[in-house]
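Q: What would this chain look like folded?
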Amino acid sequence: MTSSSPNRSRRRGILIGAFAIYLVLLAWVVLWKLEVPWIGDAAGLDRRLKLVPFLASGDADANSPIEMTINLVLFVPFGLFLGALAPNWSWWRTGLAALGASLGLEIVQHAISTGSFDTADLIVNTAGALLGWGVYVVVRRAAGPRAPVIMSRLCITVTAFTLVAVAAFVVSPLHYGPQRDVVVERTGPTP
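A: My prediction, written as structure tokens:
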């Protein structure tokens, strides 16, 4: 065992812990917009899914640029972490992992009625993770053997910054909005 193995194991453990914190914060942001967790009254009711990305369809409005930008930025650390934790993964494997995580979050938010299922979110979230993975690739090529240390520090810094930002948001008077159910009124005869 080399002298750097304990350092590598310790760094990986810290990185896994930081990734877990990031995932918890990501779920809190996506599902409850940093509000107290709740389940909406429409949970379990038949509601429509937005299957046409980006454009208005059915009862759903077109996606706003600010919402898409926020979703993109929220998933960049996902790609950074996957690059640091699974350096041999290809872009498509990273993309599939991000798509799976995003799909899980979309299904849960729709099921508990804290949001609605939107295919645009799947696309933008996956793009954000791939952007983060691209940053990892650039760092790996530029830093060579120092890349794991640099990526670990970057990921831990991003997590620390996110924790501070979340804490500032929670104690501030600013809030995303009132807790409300996402219910789509249907027109026409009911079955």
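The chain has one domain: 8-37+50-168.
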